[in-house]
Specification:
By secondary structure, the chain is α/β, with parallel strands linked by helices. It contains six helices and 14 strands. It is 21% helix and 26% strand. A hairpin with a 2-residue loop joins β7 and β8.
């Protein structure tokens, strides 16, 4: 569905997606994590586009700008590694003059759907802030704000007060909750994916992986001969055998044409510093394994 046709469009409202975190706990850029419908950033962006326009992606200094539609704006933090408050400031500055309210969310929330995004704006009423609470904590990064909070944001940055929750000090903020039984057959809307374990569980909700199977992580490397059509990547999933990893890779990276003539795709295991050994599809996997999927040849 295009954003223009969406019944959830909220006029006069913009969006800010925070993509500039270091992803230290994940060990891989979260925006690029793959789901069955594509990279996580594209999934989150597509959902927000149904509700608001324009949208700004907040990036870290030096972070590559994703190749996205021309109407998606970007803003980069003024100082590196200073926390998400810089992302809020630069995002608000980029949106100034374009909207009256802005809905904010991190890129690592794959299950926050358009109705839950719109709810933040709808229940804001005449207040300057509306936040979701999850697991006992109000999350200032999953929220809607009035754009006239920009001077307050800039003052917090100038004072070195970097916690985003400081933004609602003195505000009559509305705090929303989402019942834990909201999605009994799926993931909670406020689930974030910031560790390999969380990514494995999120993929299970998407039908990727086997419950109770060993936890494995996979680094996907691309040789120069295949780099023009297949990106390097990362997987964390529950898998019993090497063939399960290969199948999941095909589901999440459709450009990975394992059966194409001339392609060389190998899943490799390294044990105690020994030379890497290719795994046959039937080979069982070990709990906690770190594997390497190598793509080379005439892909």
């Amino acid at each position: 569905m295009s954003s223009a046709a969406s019944p959830l469009r909220r006029e006069g409202c913009g969006g800010l997606i925070l993509c500039g975190g270091r992803s230290a706990r994940m060990g891989y850029e979260k925006a690029r994590l793959r789901f069955p419908d594509g990279p996580l950033l594209e999934r989150v962006l597509g959902r927000m586009q149904q509700v608001v326009h324009p949208i700004v992606l907040s990036l870290a200094p030096g972070q590559a700008t994703p190749a996205l539609a021309g109407d998606v704006l970007t803003a980069k933090d003024g100082v590196a590694n200073q926390g998400p408050l810089w992302g809020l400031v630069e995002g608000f500055r980029r949106l100034a003059g374009h909207c009256e309210r802005v809905v904010v969310m991190p890129v690592d929330m794959p299950f926050l759907t358009p109705p839950w995004i719109a709810r933040l704006l709808d229940e804001m009423a005449d207040r300057r802030a509306c936040l979701y609470e999850h697991e006992g904590f109000a999350n200032a990064l999953t929220a809607a704000y009035s754009m006239d909070l920009l001077p307050k944001l800039e003052a917090l940055v100038a004072e070195g007060r970097r916690r985003p929750i400081f933004l609602i000090e003195g505000e009559d903020a509305r705090i929303l909750t989402v019942p834990e039984d909201t999605a009994p057959a799926g993931a909670h809307p406020l689930t974030d994916v910031d560790t390999p374990e969380a990514y494995r569980d999120a993929l299970l909700h998407e039908g990727i992986g086997q419950p109770g199977a060993p936890e494995v992580t996979v680094e996907i490397q691309t040789a120069a001969s295949a780099a023009n059509v297949f990106p390097a990547g990362y997987l964390a999933l529950y898998a019993e055998r090497a063939g399960d990893v290969l199948f999941a890779a095909q589901q999440l990276y459709p450009e990975l044409t394992i059966t194409r003539a001339g392609a060389d795709v190998r899943l490799l295991r390294n044990v105690d510093g020994e030379p890497e050994a290719p795994l046959e599809p039937h080979a069982p996997l070990w709990r906690g394994e770190h594997l390497r999927l190598e793509v080379s040849g005439g892909v």
